[in-house]
C-alpha cells in the first residue's frame, strides 16, 4: 500500500509501506474514503511543526472497515469515524474521558505524526486501528462523509470548545479569533446552540463570508473589547491574538485556546487575575465526546459542509495538500463514499 509522507516544507509524496495486518482480535483495518487536513497539518506542511520529516501525515477521515478481528463489533463495509488519538478505552484515563492520555500507549500516541510511536497516517490507502471497538465511531446515517471528513478532530474539537459552555451559560456572547476551519465550525455550532452574539475575527474575507453565512458578525481585526464576551475561542496559534481574546472576556469568562502555539509568548496574567478568567490550552479528548458531536451534526441544525473548500481525488494528495486551502477533502475512487 501507499502512505502520504511529509518529506520537506510544502512537499509530500506517496511512499510504499507494507499492508497493515490484524495484530489482535480487537483490531480493524480501514480504508479512508474521505479525508481532510487538520488545521495543524497546514502548519506542519508550512514547516512550523516541532517534528522533522519524514513521516506519514494525516489524522482526519471517515473510513470504511475492510477487515476486523473476531471480537470486534465492526464488519467489512461499515462507515466509521477514526479519532486522531490512539486509546484503549479501558485504562483509568480512558474511563475518565481522557482518551488523549491513554496509559496503554506512549504519551500522545496518534495518527499523522510520530509522537508516542509510529501509527501511520490517515492519508494512507489502509490503516490498522487497535482497540477498534473503543476507538471507532459509526458514522450516523444521513451524514455525508465528505462534509464530515473532519470528524476525527477539528469538528468535534469545535463542539467541545463551545457546546459545554453554552449549556452552562445559555445565550452566552462568543468571540472567535481564528485562521482556519476550527473557528468556522465554532461559529456554526454556537449559532445552533443559542449564543446571543458571535463575533468572528479573521483577516481572510472568504473565511469571514462563511462565518456570516452562519449568522456571525465579522471583523478583519479588533482591539480588545473590555468585558465584551463570556466565551472566547482562539485558534490562530498566535500569542497576540490569544492576548486579545483574554482581554475581551467578561468577569469569570472562559477562553479556549485551540491554536498550536509553537512559539512562546507573554500573557496578561495580572489582568486575567483581576478579571477572574479561566484559560484552557489543551488537545482534545475527541473520542469521549465524538458521539455527542455527531448527534448534533445528524440533527440538521448545523452545516459543516460549508467549510469544505474543495473536493479532490485521492491521487491529487501530493500536489494539492501542500497548497493553501481552508479545508480540502480528498476522496477515493476505489472506495465510494456512499453506503
From TrEMBL:
Signal peptide: none annotated. Residues 25-138 form the Alcohol dehydrogenase-like N-terminal domain. InterPro entries: ADH-like_N, GroES-like_sf, NAD(P)-bd_dom_sf. Its cofactor is Zn(2+). Keywords: Metal-binding, Zinc. This is Alcohol dehydrogenase. It comes from Lentzea atacamensis.
Amino acid at each position: 500500500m501507499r502512505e502520504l509522507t511529509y518529506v520537506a516544507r510544502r512537499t509530500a509524496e506517496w511512499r510504499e509501506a507494507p499492508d497493515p495486518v490484524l495484530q489482535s482480535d480487537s483490531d480493524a483495518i480501514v480504508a479512508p474514503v474521505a479525508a481532510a487536513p487538520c488545521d495543524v497539518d497546514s502548519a506542519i506542511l508550512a514547516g512550523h511543526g516541532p517534528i522533522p520529516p519524514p513521516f506519514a501525515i494525516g489524522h482526519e477521515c471517515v473510513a470504511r472497515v475492510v477487515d476486523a478481528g473476531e471480537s470486534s463489533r465492526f464488519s467489512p463495509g461499515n462507515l466509521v469515524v477514526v479519532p486522531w488519538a490512539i486509546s484503549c478505552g479501558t485504562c483509568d484515563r480512558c474511563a475518565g474521558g481522557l482518551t488523549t492520555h491513554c496509559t496503554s500507549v506512549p504519551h500522545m500516541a496518534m495518527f499523522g505524526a510520530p509522537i508516542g510511536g509510529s501509527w501511520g497516517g490517515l492519508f494512507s490507502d489502509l490503516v490498522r486501528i487497535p482497540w477498534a471497538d473503543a476507538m471507532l465511531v459509526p458514522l450516523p446515517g444521513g451524514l455525508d462523509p465528505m462534509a464530515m471528513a473532519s470528524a476525527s478532530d477539528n469538528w468535534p474539537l469545535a463542539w467541545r470548545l463551545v457546546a459545554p459552555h453554552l449549556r452552562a451559560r445559555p445565550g452566552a456572547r462568543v468571540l472567535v479569533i481564528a485562521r482556519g476551519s476550527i473557528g468556522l465550525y465554532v461559529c456554526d455550532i454556537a449559532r445552533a446552540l443559542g449564543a446571543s452574539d458571535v463575533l468572528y475575527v479573521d483577516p481572510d474575507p472568504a473565511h469571514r463570508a462563511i462565518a456570516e453565512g452562519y449568522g456571525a458578525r465579522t471583523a478583519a481585526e479588533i482591539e480588545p473589547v473590555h468585558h465584551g464576551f463570556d466565551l472566547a475561542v482562539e485558534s490562530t496559534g498566535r500569542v497576540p491574538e490569544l492576548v486579545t481574546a483574554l482581554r475581551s472576556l467578561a468577569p469569570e469568562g472562559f477562553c479556549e485556546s485551540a491554536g498550536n502555539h509553537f512559539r512562546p509568548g507573554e500573557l496578561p496574567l495580572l489582568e486575567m487575575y483581576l478579571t477572574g478568567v479561566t484559560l484552557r490550552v489543551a488537545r482534545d479528548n475527541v473520542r469521549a465526546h465524538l458521539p455527542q458531536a455527531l448527534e448534533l451534526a445528524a440533527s440538521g441544525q448545523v452545516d459543516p459542509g460549508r467549510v469544505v473548500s474543495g473536493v479532490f481525488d485521492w491521487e491529487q494528495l501530493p500536489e494539492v495538500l501542500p497548497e493553501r486551502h481552508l479545508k480540502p477533502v480528498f476522496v477515493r475512487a476505489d472506495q465510494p463514499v456512499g453506503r
